[in-house]
Design goal:
The chain contains no helices and five strands. With 67 residues, it is mostly beta strands. The chain has one domain. Strands 1-2-3 form a three-stranded antiparallel β-sheet, with no helix packed on it. A two-stranded antiparallel ribbon has the order 4-5. A hairpin with a 6-residue loop joins strand 4 and strand 5. The N and C termini lie far apart (26 Å).
Length: 67
């Protein structure tokens, strides 16, 4: 199994779910530190975007490689 030097978080798009969950232009991201899933704006995937911050453990990480 190949490993990446710079692991990127897992993402899920257009995931159906309960009515109270954020939908539309959202991307679900898995925190690489605590494995909590949380929604972020799709704009967070653009180069130069600020890092995401996990609401559970407050770990920050970039969604775009090289930014």
């Amino acid at each position: 199994m190949a490993t990446s030097l710079s692991p990127m978080p897992n993402t899920i798009r257009d995931n159906p779910g309960p009515a109270h969950e954020k939908r539309g232009n959202a991307v679900w991201v898995e925190c690489s530190a605590c494995k909590t899933w949380f929604p972020v704006s799709a704009m967070m995937q653009r180069p130069g975007a600020a890092p995401t911050c996990c609401p559970h453990c407050h770990h920050e990480e970039q969604l775009v490689a090289g930014s």
